[in-house]
Structure formats: C-alpha cells, structure tokens
Amino acid sequence: MPLEGDPYFSFDNGLGSAAETEGTCSLSFRRIILTVFHVSENVQYRAYYQESILSAESTYARQRRSLLDILSRLHSTGVQKDIDLPQIVVIGSQSVGKSSLIESMSGVTLPRDTGTCTRCPLECRLEYSPEKWSCQVFLRFECDTDGRPLDQVKEINFGPIITDKSGVELRLRRAQRAILRPSLESELFLRDDDLAIIEPPPLSFSRNCVCMRIMGPEVPDLYFFDLPGVIANVREGGDVKDIELIRHMVIDYISRPSCLILLVVSCETDFENQGAGRLAFEVDPEGDRIVGVLTKPDRIEHATGEKWAAVLRNEENRLANGWFCVRQPDPKELKQKITWEEARLREVLFFSHQEPWKSLPDRHCRRLGSMNLIRFLSRLLSKMIAIRLPDIEREISIGLDDLNRRLKELPPPKYTDPSGELIGLIFEFTSAISRDVRGLTRFDPMSRKLLQGIRSAQLKLKSSIMRTAPRFCPWEQSDTPPGSPRSAMSKPSFLSKEEISSFEERTGRIMYLDEVMEFIEQAITRELPGDYPTFAVKEELIKTSMKGWGKPMLEYFETVRGLMAQYLKALVDIHFGMHMHSGLHAKVMSIVRDQLRNLSDKAMQHLNSLLSVEGLPFTLNHSQLREYKEAFLAHYKDIRRRSKGQDAIVRRFQDSEAVLSTQFRNDLTDLTELLQRFGLPCTPTDLQRLLPEDKFDPALDIIATVRAYFEVAFRRFIDLVPLVVDSEFVRFVEGSARTSLIVELDVRSTDRCALWLQDSPEVVARRKELLATKQRLESAK
Predict the structure, then answer these.
(1) How far apart are CA 292 and CA 757, in angstroms?
(2) Name one Pfam family in it (predicted).
(3) pLDDT tens-digit map of 238-257
(4) Mean pLDDT, residues 294-310
(5) Which of 264, 296, 295, 294 is nearest to 277 (CA)?
(6) How many C-beta atoms lie closer than 10 Å to residue 385's C-beta?
(7) Is residue 366 within 8 Å of 730, Cβ to Cβ?
(8) Whole-Å CA distances, 329 to 108, 297, 342
(9) Residue 151: alpha-carbon gap to chain centroid
C-alpha cells in the first residue's frame, strides 16, 4: 500500500537527507535496513533493526530456543499450579492497544470487537524455524465451569495446522468461543455449528486458555500470556462480577515471583487513571518485575509530550527494567489492512520524525519500536529461565518426595484383606503403646510428654508423703527451749537434705512429750504397774501419721490417669484419624476409654488395699529400723538435755582427754578407780548414766520408734504406689486394649472390617488431588 499520502512518511529509498539530519533519534534509525521489492506491481517495505538480526542458527539462539521449549512443555503439563514458572504476562486496561501490541509481537492478526474482545488468557509461543511459516492452536482446560481447578490439565488440538496467516484470526475467534462454552464438543466450533446452539449460554470470561504456537523463518523466540483487559465497569446487560473476576485472574498470574509483567499503558489517558497500572504496582510496589510499554504515542497532545518522554526515560514511574514505546496501526490503517512489515516501517518512521521521540539520545532510542521490545523480552525471559531452571528441578524433586510421603499417610485405596488390614492397624496401635510406655521411643514428643509427666508426678508424690512425717517435740508443752521448736527439730544430721528441706512444709500437728505420756496413760487397761502398752500406742501413732497418705496417692493416680487419657486420645487420632467417617475412630476411642476406666477402677482398688495394709505396722527391715531409732532417740535426747541444761555435763564426759583440764582429768581417774575397787568397772562415758532418770524416757522411746518406722514405711510406700500404677494400669493398657479391640471390632467379619476401613469422601478427594499433583510433577520432571 503506497505511503506517499502521509506527510511524515515521505522518504526516498536511500534514506534521504531529512532522515539523516533531523535529531539524534533520526540518525540512529540509519541502521534500519530497507528492502524494496515488488509484489503484483505494489511496493512493499520490510524494516528491521540491524541489532535485532541474529543468526537463527547461532549457539545462543539455539540455547534460547531450547529454554523456551522447556518452559512451553512445563506449562502444558499444568505444573504452574504447583511450581513458580518464569513467564511474561501482558496486562493493560481495556482499549489501551494491547491487541495491536500482541499482533506486532506475533506477526498475526487477532480478533477485534467493540468493547472487551479478549475473554480468556491467550498463550503465545513464538519460535524460529527454518521451515515454512505455520500456526497451531490448542485449547487448555485448567478449570471447570465454576472456576474450580481440574485435577489434571487437559490440552487438546483445535483444528489442523494453519499455513496462511489470514486464517489465524478466525481460528482464534472460534477457539475463544470453545473456551467459553466448555460443555460443547470442540469440533462444533470449527464449523461454526455452535452458533445455532442456544443452551448452555457462554461464560462471560474464563480462566481456561487458548494456546497459539507460531513457527517460521522470521518468527522471534518468545513466550508470553495475554490476559483480558482490566475493566472498571460493564456494558449494559453485563455482569458486574466480571470486574472482580478479571481483577483476580490478573492478580493470580502476576503475583507469582517469576512472572515478568508487561504493563501496557496508553498515552492518550493519564497513567493514574489506568487500573492495570495500579494492579501491577500493587503486587510489585518496587517495579522490579515490571516492563512498561507506552502505546498510542500518535495520540499525544503537544502539551503532554514531554511528560510521556520522561516516562520513557524512566524518570517518572520508575521501573527496574524501564519503559518502551511502540506505535501500532491506527483505525484507518487497520481498515486498510496494512501488512505487518508496513506497520513496522511506519512505526520506525514515526519515531524518527516526531517529537519528542526523534530528539531522544541514542540510548533511549533503543527503547522505541516493537522490534526492540521483542528483542529485550526474548533475552530477559531466556535469562530468567536459565536462572530459575535448577530451582525448578529441585522443587519438583522435593515436591515429589513430599507427595509420596503424604500418599503413604493415607490408607490404601482398596483392601484385599480387610480383616488383616484392621488387625494390622490394631497391632500397630498397641505396639506403639508398648514402645512408648517402656520408654523405647524416648525422643518421641508424645512418649516423652507421657513418661516425663509421670516422673514429675512421682517426685510430687514423694515430696507430699515426706511432708506428712510426725512432728514430735522432745520437751513438755509448757517448757521454753532455747530457740523455736521448729528450728530445734530442723537439723537431724542423719537425714537427707531433701527430707530436711521438707520440715518447714510439714502438715501434721506438733506433739509434745507430756501429750505422748498422756496418750500412753489413756491406753493403759490391764497392764501391771510400771508397764506401758507401748505397741498399741506406737501402732496408733503410726496410723495417725499415715492418714495424710491417701490424698497424695489419689492425686498421683489422677495425674497419671489424665496423662494416659491425653496420650491415648492423641495416639488414636494418629492411627485411626483417617477413618473418622466410618465410625472406626469413634469406636476405637470408646473401647479405649472403657478399658481405661476398667483398669483405673482395678488399679484404684489395689492402691486402697495398699494404703490399708500400710496401717498395720510391719517390717523385716530390722537393721534400718534399728539404725533410724537409735539416731532419732539420740537426737531427741540431745534436744531434751539441752532443754534441761544438762548438755554441758554430758559433753564433758564425752570429750577426749586432750581437751579436759588436768584437775578434772585427775578427778575422773580417782572416781573410776574408786568404783573399780567396789567391783564396778566403768569408763568416763559411763558416768553420764548417773544423771537423774528422765520420767519421759518411755515417751522418748515411743516417738523415736514411730519416727524411725515412718522413715522405713514411707520409702516403701512411695515405691509401691508407682509400681502398682505402672504394672496394673500404665503397662496393662497395651494388652487390655488389644484384646478388647479385636473382640469388639469383630475382626473375624470381612464385611464388617470393610465397612470400618472404607475411605471417606475427604480421603478420596485428598488422594485424587495428591495423585493429580504427582502426575503433573512427574510429567514436568
């Protein structure tokens, strides 16, 4: 089509002087190669940038093509649902010239209509090939009619391969209709038979995708998605929900970290009024992943030219990858159906003759025109793929490992031996109990929580029982000993530090010697004068000291029972949680609770019997009882003497000769020799027996015995209580639960077991989802 009628398209075939002298940008366009040839007596022009001419057979080009091919195959598997894939996504508000930009990049004509034309994503795969130009169209279904993701992406051929560019527009139009009416067979649309079918009505928009693969000797290597234009309102009769549907679709695409956003902005409308720009900066506030493209520069008013030039220079609305500006055919040229080559030539001449573009420095001129944009995007996408590919491979491998693990956690889809499977579940469950209560899985959090909780309860039991020790004071209640009674009784050196520290927390009533003697007098019935019912008194005092043992024992058992209940509930959830829908989980939980209740009752009977038996004083541990009695008796007598002021005399008898004075040592020698002459041999230590007899000696003997027996008995008790609970309750759960589960679940009935083990709809759906994801990842591997 001739160009002579356009004032700024006038030129001579040798790049006349006007093109050589007008502005810096005009000079840079001298690198354009113009090839003039005749077709049917009409002059056609083909324009290319010299820098964009790269040997299609070069190593770099082949590597780039290989990377783009990998990306295309990954997208065709649907793995982008699971893995972040590099991609270019073209977005823009409605009527900003996005379709014209896609045409300039793809070299084919797209469908055009008034209002919104693109109603589903368009995937464009452009690839150099030495073979004849061809185009193939596919339909990719990723969602159902309600927008829910399909388990497996389905990609089908839509019609035969196109070898004539003029056939692409109609094929794409039909393909979009097929996407919007997914319930109809795709063949209907190839013949336009769908136009006669009223029901079901087409969708207004769809997330499913039309895929276009173009190959040829003059096709650049590029891969991108074109999305429906962002709209702020709908036409009469439209659905306002479409506004949000498109918005969410755009955000879903461009939010992915490896997405390069190609933001198309029209120069005939203020940037702030274009919704696509707001969405782009909403997901990428710093503009690191955005490449800006200005369209319709021929619509710029003279007053606003410099403003848009500042944007191109990246001085306004700055982006990490900067801005480009392209000029596409206007409505008149579209009506004239100028060729792609003519459109590119007019684009070059526009930028070389029009302000503010022709005066731009050379570095900014490289951002003018569709060819520069295509070259930039192709290189940038290839780089992104090369960088991201190792991570994609690793993520796929990790994802498959995780999927296999999660699939193993699900029950098998079918059971050939339901009875055997259920028995296996029961034995796995009870074996886990056995391992955990025996401490074989010491680093398992559940086992550790159970056993350490029981251990803490045992230590608390010990401390509580120690605090019930009898509180005897070896003086009369009316006496005032040196220091308080508590301090006087707080340091028996033969007891452990743990017992001594519990003295201040003892809960029993203090009993003085005169009270003990009074208790002895009350117990006398038929005894002879001078005799005391010492065993009866000791027995009663022992029983009194043990009255406080029941509460700590019960608290200990309740703690252990609570820990076991929590542990078993968690274990049932782990082993039978996937069978909640069939009632198996609830049944197992009910059986386990019943067994826990029965075992608890039996263990409590044993504990009560143990407590009752401890009320009968008995021990064969004679040596320990004797040692404790002698120690307590000496301890009480020492305090008693100190309270009566006799401690100084006794200490003098007990001191070694080295510390005695000469006179006192001579007097002791004379006294012992005199007694020996009367046939009474003795030592200085024996002389302390000459002190007056204490009328409270029977009481001292009784309290020393009772206190000594407490030391023997409480140690036995704090061992036996945990042993009974452990053997009759904690360890018994395993065998009891296994027997009850086998009987009450009726494992001999194959039909009953099959019902117990049937999959829930949730498990079926979960397995289906995991298998679909696994298939996508394996396809992409």
Answers:
(1) 58
(2) GED
(3) 778 888 889 999 999 999 88
(4) 87
(5) 264
(6) 22
(7) no
(8) 13, 11, 9
(9) 24
Which 8-state DSSP code applies to residue 729?
I
Per residue in 177-201, pLDDT (tens digit) is 999 998 888 888 998 888 878 778 8
Q: What is the rounded distance in angstroms from the CA atom of residue 177 to the CA atom of residue 555?
A: 75
Which has more pLDDT, 661 or 503? 503
Report pLDDT digits (tens) over 576-610: 988 888 889 999 999 999 999 999 999 999 999 99
Q: How far apart are CA 553 and CA 468, in angstroms?
A: 12
Cβ atoms of 396 and 777 within 8 Å: the answer is yes
Q: How many CB atoms lie within 10 A of CB 285?
A: 8
H or E element in which residue 469 lies: none
Average pLDDT over residues 399-408: 80
486 pLDDT band, cuts 50/70/90, is very low
- What pLDDT sits at residue 161? 94
Residue 319 vs residues 226, 281, 312, 410, 504: alpha-carbon distances, Å:
21, 10, 10, 48, 75
Is residue 262 within 8 Å of 376, Cβ to Cβ?
A: no
Determine if the peptide bond prior to 228 is cis (ω within 30°): no
259 closest CA partner among 159, 380, 138: 380
Name the amino acid, one letter, at 258: S
Continuous segment of H or E residues that includes residue 139: strand 134-143
**Rounded to an integer, what distance in angstroms lies between the CA atom of residue 519 and that of residue 541?**
10
Contacts of 20 (CB under 8 A, 6+ apart): 26, 27, 30
Residues 6+ away with beta carbon under 8 Å from 393: 781
What amino acid is encoded at 11 in this protein?
A: F
Domain borders along the chain are 47-395, 422-646+691-758
User: For residue 648, which amino acid is it?
Assistant: A
| 65 exposure class (CB count in 10 Å sphere: 0-12, 13-18, 19+) | middle
Q: Which CATH code for domain 47-395?
A: 3.40.50.300
User: Among candidates 506, 466, 470, 468, which has minimal Cα distance to 699?
Assistant: 470
Residue 776 CB coordination number (10 Å)? 23
CA distance 656 to 238: 116
CB 126 within 8 A of CB 214: yes
Which two structure tokens, joined as six digits, stand for 326? 């392209």
Closest CA to 575 of 485, 446, 693, 467: 446
Name the pLDDT band for 780 (thresholds 50, 70, 90). Answer: low
Q: What is the pLDDT of residue 218?
A: 85
Output 153 or 780, whichever has higher pLDDT. Answer: 153
Separation between Cα atoms, residue 326 and residue 372, nearest integer Å: 9
Phi, psi of 145 (to 5 degrees): -65, -20
- Please enumerate in sequence order all residues whose Cβ is within 8 A of that of 289, keeping only pairs 6 or more positions apart, or say none: 254, 257, 259, 260, 261, 320, 321
Rounded-to-integer distance, Cα 379 and Cα 61, Å:
10
Cα 513 to Cα 96, 358, 640, distances in angstroms: 107, 118, 10
Structure tokens at 595: 């067994």
Look at the domain 422-646+691-758 and name its fold. Four Helix Bundle (Hemerythrin (Met), subunit A) (1.20.120)
Residue at token pair 């693109």 = 118
CB 718 within 8 Å of CB 592: no
- The Cα–Cα gap between 774 and 651 comes to 90
Per-residue model confidence as pLDDT tens digits over 19-68:
333 445 544 444 443 433 333 333 333 333 333 444 445 666 777 778 87
Peptide bond preceding 356 in cis form (omega within 30 of 0): yes
